[in-house]
Specification:
CATH class of the largest domain: Alpha Beta
Distance between the termini: 52 Å
Shape: elongated
Oligomer: single chain
Largest sheet: 5 strands, parallel
Radius of gyration: 18 Å
Strand order of the largest sheet: 2-1-3-4-5
Helix content: 25-40%
Number of strands: 12
């Protein structure tokens, strides 16, 4: 562990049951200034999350004892503001969407480039760090929703709604300008960063998850509306 490094960017937990994978990723991220912890099983991953409170988790899909999906779901149920990137050899789009829908911020297929992995981690990390940074834009009130931009918190009819950092960024972008239509590419640039520009369909998964959390009727959404052939907009609610 490179705890003496002066360029510490964040604490990262890497979870993979293949020691050879950890042996490659761990020193690379340490060389980039991260404090790195590792775990080989899903059970160990959950224990390490409690012990070291990482800002970023690179989480393998297939793990002993507890699957990566189970670990991701349990972490999200605790409402931790942590970035989760699923790392997996599974390439089926349904699997990718499932991972995003349970709260992963990104999905990275094996084999992968360490530089691409680093770019994705940094993009998610920026959202995590922005969540704790003071904002001057205050509070948005849209229908039954209250969006606190300074604390990255959302309430609907007085009940707090737990969103991932990516979900909050998308909601904040749309709600700031009701009625304005954003393409998938525009939402990617505005909320997730340039590292995601080849993954426009990732937005669809986040939108689907947001609707399940925010809408009374997902078949007839009043907050996050689809403009067919163009993108998405926030409804002009009162």
């Amino acid at each position: 562990m490179n705890q003496g490094c002066e360029r510490v960017a964040a604490t990262i937990l890497i979870v993979d049951d293949e020691p050879k994978v950890l042996d490659v990723i761990k020193p690379f991220f340490e060389s980039e200034g991260f404090v790195v912890y590792t775990a080989l099983t899903g059970t160990d991953a959950l224990r390490m999350v409690e012990e070291v409170n990482p800002e970023i988790i690179i989480l393998d899909w297939m793990l002993p004892e507890r699957s990566g999906l189970d670990v991701c779901r349990e972490i999200r149920n605790t409402a931790r503001n942590v970035g989760i990137l699923m790392l997996t050899a599974r390439t089926d789009e349904t699997d990718r969407v499932l991972g995003l829908e349970i709260g992963a911020d990104d999905y990275i297929p094996k084999p992968f480039s360490l530089r691409e992995l680093l770019a994705r981690v940094r993009a998610v990390l920026r959202r995590i760090q922005n969540a704790s940074a003071p904002e001057e834009s205050g509070v948005l009130r849209r229908g039954d929703l209250v969006i606190d931009e300074s604390k990255y918190r959302v309430w609907k009819r007085g009940q707090e709604i737990q969103l991932t950092p990516a979900e909050f960024q998308i909601l904040q972008t749309l709600a700031a300008r009701p009625g304005v239509v954003y393409s998938r590419l525009q939402l990617l640039k505005a909320t997730l960063g340039d590292a995601y520009l080849n993954y426009e369909r990732t937005i669809d998964s986040h939108i689907s998850h947001l609707r399940k959390k925010l809408e009374d009727d997902t078949a007839d959404p009043k907050y996050i509306q689809t403009v067919h052939g163009v993108g998405y907009r926030f409804g002009e609610v009162t």
